[in-house]
Amino acid sequence: MRRTRILATLGPASDSPDTIRRLLEAGADAFRLNFSHGTHASHARACERVRQAAAADRHVVAILQDLAGPKIRVGPLQAPLALAEGDPLAIELGDFAGGPGRISTSFGALFTSVGPGHRLLVDDGRIEVRVEEASPGRLATRVVTGGILEGRKGINVPDVPLRTSALTEQDVADLRAGLEMGVDLVAVSFVQSADDVHAARAAAAAAGAPALPVVAKIEKPQAVEQIEPILDAADGIMIARGDLGIELPLETVPAVQKTIIQAARQRGVPVIVATEVLESMRSSPRPTRAEVTDAANAVGEGADAIMLAVETAAGRYPVRAVQILDAILREAEKTPAAVPVMPGAVGAAEHGRALAEAAVALATRARAAAIVALTEAGKTAVLLAALRPTARLIAATPNVRTAARLALVWGVTPVIAPEATLAAVREYLVAGSIVPSGSTVVFVSMHAGLGREDANFVHVERL
Question: What is the set of active-site residues?
């Protein structure tokens, strides 16, 4: 079985019932709703289609809501603007149609965050301007690298932290809408510190979902510098290499990715690698050799999941992209990972860590067919996955939402059992042929407290 998960983004190319069904058949484990595009109504329809397709195929599938965050964009333009090196360019607060020498942006925090000498990267870094003067609501800049500028293109500010939260008012409204749709996890864009993660968790709690897992998107230099406290605060992270590769020197991104994955592994925090994984499949039926190598290397580094973005949202071959990524991941997993299991903290009490290590060791010695985590909230399965066992890892939970959230965690097969007790799960596994009768299985259960004798145990038996 494939251990590394596939997260597919839904969009115009893929949000029909038939395509969603075929994406599931091709190997998608989870779906991303990108709230930078679309409407609440269109996302709600996509969410319902995923649920219907998953129920029909008896899949446990996660739906990840990806909030837009404080993305800075150029306002509309009267016509595409030709910018040459040395040209002056004024950037002013507003949303008016720009023209020669003058453009707008509605992102007010830009004007309070940057000053003379700071760089602004426009349109994915294709155009660079440098700030010469800053005044309220206006930046006087000069073009360093020219090009043709079109309206609504993004602006990145690599040199300074933005004086704004990663959670905008629109994000809060979108989050409430996502919770009404029944999303399983939320991703927060342009995180700069652990405070942004805490703010998202507070917003989810205020909307009635205090246990909603929060995924921090790492796409700014400030987040890389603050990665350890962010990892301590988040339930998962996404290495979003698009904006990260603009705001950091390109040549540093591979090392940053490897370092972040190692830090996440040490803490048992699931990590998603995203952006331009099979980018060429936007228009080509085959990826490049470099893209194949990139995806395979992410497996070796220890990523829990790989995300497809435009490939499945707007590409010509969404289903084929998932099929090819599935094949790449399966082949890559045949080679033992070079990254060792880290011995550091993994977000559990010491006895929980000991129980997990004992279960993995026992499964290896007994040549067990599976390790079965009895779990209510999913933490036992996440901890076991962090140790990367060779045995199949099954998470048995009576909580449908917990099962869905585990669909993005490395190696976990979530099953919805009637109750998380040893007797009930044993009967369920055999009756459903989830584990063949006669197999050796290691059951593990853990609880933060030590007052219940039925809550903390490792048990091995032949079914």
Answer: 32, 73, 217, 275
| DSSP codes, 112-140 | HH--TT-EEEETTTTEEEEEEEEETTEEE
The pair of three-digit structure tokens given for residue 428, joined into one six-digit string = 């369920």
Length of the chain: 463
Report pLDDT digits (tens) over 11-29: 999 999 999 999 999 999 9
- Give percent above pLDDT 70 in the chain: 96
Scan for tokens 């709690």, then name that residue: 205
Its sign, for the CA torsion 47, 177, 8, 235, is: negative
Enumerate the β-bridge partners of residue 281. Answer: none
Distances (CA, A) of 100 to 89, 90, 155, 309, 463: 8, 9, 18, 34, 75
Half-sphere exposure of 266 (CA within 13 A, CB side): 12
pLDDT band for 352, please (50, 70, 90 cuts): confident
Q: Angle 169-181/194-206 helices, nearest 10 degrees?
A: 50
> Three-state SS for 88?
strand
Q: Which helix (H) or strand (E) holds 415?
A: strand 412-416
- What's the alpha-carbon Rg for the chain, to the nearest Å? 23
Residues 387-416 have pLDDT tens digits of 999 999 999 999 999 999 999 999 999 999
Q: Which residues contact residue 94 at a Cβ distance below 8 angstroms, ignoring those fewer than 6 apart?
A: 75, 104, 105, 106, 137
151 SS3 class: coil
Q: Give me the domains of the chain, ranges plus CATH numbers.
A: 5-69+166-332 (3.20.20.60), 72-156 (2.40.33.10), 350-462 (3.40.1380.20)
